[in-house]
Amino acid sequence: MGIAMGVNLIPAPQMPDLWTAPAQVSSTEKRLPRWLKLEIPEAWVRFLLAIVGLTLAFGAAMFSTVSRESGNLWATLIFASLALLLATIVGLTTVPYLARRVATSRVRDAVDYDVTPVGIIYVVTVLLIGIAALNTGNNLLYIIVAAMLAAVLISGIASAAMLRDLEVELRLPDHVFAGTAFSGAIVLRNRRRWAPAFSISVLALKKERASKHWQWTPAKFSFPPGRPAEKQWLQIPDRQLRRVSKALPPPGIFQGAAYFPYVPAKNELTADLELRFDRRGRYQQDKLGVATRFPFAFLRKTRRVALAREIIVYPSVEPADEFFQMLPLITGEFESFTRGRGSDLYRIREYMPEDSARHVDWKATAKSGSLKVREFSREDDRKLRIVFDNPPPGVVPEAAYESAVTLAASLAWHFAAENTTLSFAVPDLNRVNDVYDFLSYLALVEPRASASPIEGIDICDEYNIILTSRPRASIPTVLWTCSYFVFMEGHL
Question: How far apart are CA 282 and CA 250, in angstroms?
Answer without folding.
Answer: 7
